[in-house]
Design goal:
Rossmann fold, 7 strands, single chain, alpha/beta, 257 residues, 15% strand
Amino acid sequence: MKNLFDLTNKVAIVTGGGSGLGRSNAIALAKAGANVVIADIIHEDAQKVMKEIINLGGNSICVKVDVTKKQELEEMVKKVVDFFNRIDVLVNSAGIIAPHNPHIPLVEMDEKKWDRVIEVNLKGTFLSNQVVAKQMMTQKNGRIINMASMSGTIVNRDISGVGTYCTSKAGVIIFTKALALELIKYNITVNSISPGYMETKLGALNLEDYKQKMKMVPINRLGKPEELNGLVIYLASDNASFITGSDIIIDGAYTCW
């Protein structure tokens, strides 16, 4: 019987794959059998994850790429196709909270800081999806998974001044739905995952912040990056052929309050 969760010989690109959720997702995809491309603006981080995968017996290459630069993304796609002949999965994990200070009220937000968050989180998602989707369209098959956030559905009541981040992630969710409709006829699915508070470098917290956030999450703890892995593999697999245009929240019931 065919294992519908087996990703053997699939080619997966993970943007932001050098750290945090991206790293965890990349290693999980490799363990499921995929050939994994680690794409990250910090090349040293990408190389480390690539070596981790190779040491686990997997197959991986890494590419330095800025997701806000279309030309760099196009060069990434060309390199991957030249090396692996195809692209089956894109996991778009690249993102930022805000430059320097994530807790700036919208009425005081500097225009350049606003632009940077929107540029990386929303424009970066748009460009990554666009250039990879064009390759998938020629194959008439593919899986795109965008990392959104529960903050794209609600405004974090326990943190003031995250309006830019919330706005960018809300954009990712609706963009995912719009693209899903466009790509249905090419047998390409497009979904997003919306994590809650996770134990990652991006969401690094001091002890008091950590304790405060735990109080706000009904499950009374933060999520671990590996708790997204099963869903990523599912959405990347043949078993998820009927799910597209969905946003799936994994937040320990934070948005249920």
